[in-house]
Design brief:
The chain has 76 residues and is mainly beta. Helix content is 7%, strand content 28%. It has one helix and four strands, in the order H-E-E-E-E.
Amino acid sequence: MAWYIDKKSVKLSTVEGEKKKYNTTYKSGKAPTFAGIYKCQTCDYEDVINRECDTFPPCRECGGSEWKLLVKVEPE
């Protein structure tokens, strides 16, 4: 679970088109579209995928290969 203490740094997305980004499953080996925090769909482990990642890795906890976006990071 992602936690925060500064509401100014995290925003709730209310744009209808944004929901698809958070409901899409991303496979290991594919290029990430967004930098952010992703959750493994097998064991719920959360990992950061940053702009330097060329592909989604397998989950380091369970080896799972499916991820969902939790928190999307955008430059200011």
